[in-house]
Amino acid sequence: MQTNILEVKGVKKYFKQVKAVDGIDLNIRMGEYVAVLGPNGAGKTTLVEMIEGIQHPDEGEITIQGKKWRGHSEELHHMIGLSLQETRFIDKLTVLETAILFASFYDLGEKRAKEVIELVGLSEKHKAYVVNLSGGQRQRLALGIALLNKPQILLLDEPTTGLDPNARREIWAILQKLKSEIKTSLILTTHYMEEAEVLCDRIIIMDQGKILSQGSLDEIIHLNNFYEVVEFSLHENPSKDWNLAPYTQQCIEWNPEKLTGKLYITKIQEDMPLFFELLKSKHIQLNQFNYRKATLDDVFTTLTGRHLTEQS
Questions:
Q1: What per-residue confidence (pLDDT) applies to 223?
Q2: Shortest CA distance to 264 belongs to which of 234, 309, 221, 305?
Q3: 312 residues of the chain, pLDDT tens digit each
Q4: What angle do CA 116, 199, 34 make, to 5 degrees?
């Protein structure tokens, strides 16, 4: 049985009328990688800030290794590594000087600074000024800084936003190496579906301060009865009595301007003949038809009513 390193119980955080976090229960196991997905305003940042000890819950409690922030803040800060979407460095310090500066905050020396520089693949850049680093290199340096104290929990807030695909995959490779060698637990907020799928054991979908679904990708898809997706387009808009029965519950959208729709089905061999019979009985001409397996994006959009990158 795996030990929980983090436990969140009944946590709430309100800002006037806004329920940023509205009664969340969450456990994270030792060595587990967890992604938190949600539209802007879903409550992700507030939840992570409470886990970091930056904010305090109005109700409920958060424990790390069984300890609360109150009375144990110094000890818990040494258990956590943190990297934000954008980290400010001193431009005219070198990579090594920067790592040594941050290492000193933990009473660590140059040896550890050099270890993390090697870990994030910046050894050849150790004499380069930070101002001359690319975006991907700066993010790798930020990740190295977060790892200086050998954290038991690593919190990354959209660490690859704005990076090109190659730089993003370099970050992924470092995190995958950490998982196999160091067993650090990871809480990752991200706008990239692929990032969550590639890196994380468990995905948490949040909206309006609540957890809507969580589990591995396969578990989320099956828990929400999302197995297979049919995307289709029609020759013209159907009449007003158009009804996708028995598919009413599965049709997540019908776009009358583009004449396109989408269905979720569980057994294509049984369900699709009924759909075709409906089209035939209504004299509706089918233009295009596409079948595929459901994805995390399908589940996310259906549960939240929004795409991940949309503003709230």
A1: 79
A2: 221
A3: 568 999 999 999 999 889 999 999 999 999 999 999 988 888 998 999 999 999 999 999 999 999 999 999 999 999 999 987 677 899 999 999 999 999 999 999 999 999 999 999 999 999 999 999 999 999 999 999 999 999 999 999 888 888 899 999 999 999 999 888 877 899 999 888 889 999 999 999 999 999 999 999 888 887 776 678 889 999 887 766 666 655 555 555 678 888 888 887 777 777 788 888 888 888 888 999 898 888 888 888 878 877 665 443
A4: 95
What is the C-alpha separation between 114 and 99, in angstroms, rounded? 8
d(CA 300, CA 88) in angstroms, rounded, equals 32
- Cβ-based neighbours of 73, under 8 Å, separated by 6 or more: 53
Reading the block at residue 121, the tokens are 């693949």
Q: Residue 16: how many CB atoms within 10 A of its CB?
A: 5
CATH topology of domain 227-293: Alpha-Beta Plaits (3.30.70)
The radius of gyration of the chain's CA atoms, rounded to the nearest angstrom, is 23
Backbone angles phi, psi at 112, to 5 degrees: -65, -35
- DSSP E strands, the chain: 4-15, 18-29, 33-37, 59-64, 67-68, 80-83, 153-157, 185-189, 202-207, 210-215, 228-234, 253-255, 260-265, 286-293
User: CA 230 to CA 249: how far, in whole Å?
Assistant: 14
| Kind plus residue range of the DSSP H or E element containing 115 | helix 110-119
Domain at 4-221, CATH from 3.40.1010.10, 3.40.50.300, 3.30.428.10, 2.60.120.10: 3.40.50.300
Q: Quick check: helix, strand or coil at residue 254?
A: strand
CB of 259 closer than 8 Å to CB of 233:
yes
Distance spanning both ends of the chain, measured CA to CA: 39
For residue 62, give the amino acid letter: I
Every domain of the chain with CATH number 3.30.70 lies at 227-293
